Model the fold of this input.
Amino acid sequence: MKFSDLVAQLSPQANSLTTNRDLNPEITGIMAVHEAVANTLSYIEGDKFASMVAKTTASALILPLDKNLQTQAQERGIAWMGTPQPRLMFAQAINLFYQPFHPSVSVHPAAVIDSSAVIGENVYLGAGVVIYPGVKIGDDVSIYPNVVVYPEATIGDRTILHANCTIHERSQIGNDCVIHSGAVIGAEGFGFVPTGEGWYKMQQSGCTVLEDGVEIGCNSTIDRPAVGETRIGKNTKLDNLVHIGHNCQIGQNCALAAQVGLAGGVKIGNRVILAGQVGVANQAKIGDGAIASAQTGIHHDIKAGEAVSGSPSVSNKLYLKVSAIYKRLPEMYQTFKQIKRNLGSQ
Done:
C-alpha cells in the first residue's frame, strides 16, 4: 500500500501522529531496521537504534517525537511518521501486512467428542482432538489437532488451543486466551507428604483458572493445587517453558519470560515482570509493578515497584554496584597481597 494509506489506517490508533507528506513510497512489507530494504517500513525506538536512521535502506520509518531524527529521515528522503510509542505503532502496522493462519469452522471426523460436551457456535476441532464428558466450549473457539480436554473443563469464547496441548480436569480457561503447543494446564501439583514408609501422595482436588486474554507459551505448565485454585490474572502473558506451581496467584498484565519457575503458593501482583530463568521460592509474595532481572533467585517477599537482581535477590542498584566490584576482585586481591607483604616486612 502507499505510505499515505498506511498512515491513514494507523492514525486512529496513534497518539500525536505526524507524517512527512512530501514522500509517499509504495510499502510492500515490514522489516527490522538493520535488515530493511527499499519499499519496507521499519521503526526506531531508543538511543541504541537512533544511529540507524542514517544507515537504513528502509523507505519509511516510524519515529519517536524527536525532531533531530525526523530531520535526518527527511534529508535522506525517507518517509516517516512520528508517535510517542514507535514499537506499539510498528506492532499495529504488522497487522496490516500479516494475519496468522486461522482454520475454517469444521469438526474433523477423527475428533472424539463426548455426547455430554457442550460445543458453541463457529468452532474448529482438528484431527485427533479428544473432548471428555462435561466439557463446555464457547463460541468461535479453535482447537488444533491432538489437543485433549479432560472432564468438566471450560473453554471461553474465541480461545485458541494449539496442537498437542492438554487441558486437565476442571480447568477454567477464559475468553480470548491462547494456549500454545505442548502446554499443560491444570495437571497435578507436586504434592507428597513424607512418612516413615516414604512419600504419601496428596490428591490434587483443586483447579486451575486462566482469566480472559491470558497467553501461555509452548511447553509451559500450570499445576492445580490439592485444594482451592491456581489462578492467572487477566491479560497476563507466559513465555515458553514456564512452570507455575500449585496454588500460585498471578495478577493482571504480568509478563513471565522463558524458564521462569514458581514454587507452590507464590503470590504475584499486577504488572509484574519476571525475566528469563527467574526462580521464586515457596510462598513468596511479589508486589505490583515489581521487576526481576534474568536469573534472579527470589527467596523472600518483594515490595511493590521494586527492581531486584541476583541470587539471593537484592535491589538492582545494589546488584549493579556489587557486579562492578566483582570485576575488580583480581586487581583488589593483588593489592591486598602487596599490602600484606609490606606489613610483613616491617
The radius of gyration is 26 Å.
